[in-house]
Design brief:
Layout (H helix, E strand, L loop, with lengths): L2 H15 L6 H6 L15 H5 L6 E7 L2 E8 L2 E8 L13 H8 L1 E6 L16 H14 L6 E6 L2 H11 L4 E7 L9 H20 L4 H11 L1 H8 L10 E6 L8 H16 L4 E6 L6 H4 L1 H12 L3
Parallel strand pairs: 3-4, 3-5, 5-6, 6-7, 7-8
Antiparallel strand pairs: 1-2, 2-4
Helix pairs in contact: 1-8, 4-12, 5-6, 7-9
GO cellular component, one term: membrane
Organism: Asanoa ferruginea
Keywords: Signal
Length: 305
């Protein structure tokens, strides 16, 4: 995809899905790095021979729809990576080989409905349907306990409802600049809906593509869905590392950026076994800006400490 097209799509994705940037911040988020810096070369031939196996595409059928799950073989417990709004499993391509090599764990990435190689679902985007899809996919893959769930941006909403419904399945989560319930007050929802309305109208004028349809579907029920999400809670039995970027999705709006950081801090303080980690100097795309920091936090959660 041309850089200009990806930048436009990413900006709209942030505006509709994070949700995010007001004014100049929207454009700033569209300028996030396009790829993760390459890891340093291995210092020995032994490191080269320890390269992880290639991922395997497994198409899972849920209610007659096909969902794409990419599985890098390894031992369980598995580490599941869930990308943010407007992004598919390829968002994690720079981290998966390193994470598999470092941990030896099974690594799973997947395309939520309407993204990547997964089939679309008609109508407004429904987080509860996304939760059911992830539940069904993991069950069909035989992944049923002690999962480490890593969720970026919009995927924080999927993670919250997933954790509520399946606390026994998770050993912990790493929430990477994720949408968290404390942020979505009625005041903030109203600000975001008003601020992103022009971008939504512009998206509707663009050629109809799978990605564009998904973004518009996400916007369709944004207000009511996030009013409900504000009341959601994270189970006290599931540990969480809460990563927050210093720039946030609202790099152009200091007030909203502070609310985003405050929401992450409030979430971290609201329950036991939660840790707040700040990604200094990073944009909203912490996995792209600070990949080693993200890897360190995932490995810390996977090791139980």
């Amino acid at each position: 995809m041309p850089a200009k097209s990806r930048s436009w799509r990413r900006s709209i994705a942030l505006g509709l899905v994070v949700p995010a940037a007001l004014g100049a911040g929207l454009a700033a988020c569209g300028n996030s790095p396009a790829s993760t810096p390459a890891p340093a070369a291995a210092s020995s031939s032994a490191a080269a021979t320890a390269s992880p196996p290639a991922s395997i595409l497994k198409m899972i059928t849920v209610d007659g729809r096909r969902l794409a799950f990419h599985v890098t073989p390894g031992h369980q417990p598995a580490i599941v990576l869930d990308a943010g709004g407007g992004e598919d499993s390829s968002y994690w391509k720079g981290l998966v080989p390193r994470l598999a090599q470092d941990t030896g764990s099974m690594i799973i990435t997947y395309d939520r409905a309407g993204l990547g190689d997964s089939d679309e679902v008609a109508g407004p985007w429904d987080v509860h349907s996304a939760v059911s899809d992830l539940e069904a996919g993991l069950h069909q893959l035989g992944v049923t306990q002690k999962v480490v769930l890593v969720s970026h941006s919009q995927a924080g909403e999927v993670a919250t409802y997933f954790a509520q419904a399946n606390p026994q399945l998770l050993s912990g989560a790493v929430l990477v600049d994720a949408n968290l319930p404390p942020f979505f007050t009625d005041e903030e929802i109203a600000r975001l809906v008003a601020a992103t309305a022009p971008q939504i109208e512009e998206a509707k004028k663009q050629p109809s593509t799978k990605q564009n349809r998904q973004l518009i579907a996400t916007a369709a029920n944004f207000g009511p869905a996030h009013h409900d999400y504000h009341a959601a809670s994270w189970p006290t039995t599931v540990p969480a590392i809460v990563m927050v970027s210093t720039k946030t999705p609202f790099d152009g709006s200091p007030e909203d950026a502070q609310r985003w950081r405050d929401a992450a801090a409030a979430f971290a303080k609201a329950g036991p076994d939660r840790e707040l980690v700040t990604a200094e100097g990073s944009s909203h795309d912490i996995p792209l800006d600070r990949p080693q920091l993200v890897l360190d936090q995932i490995e810390k959660m996977a090791s139980g400490g």
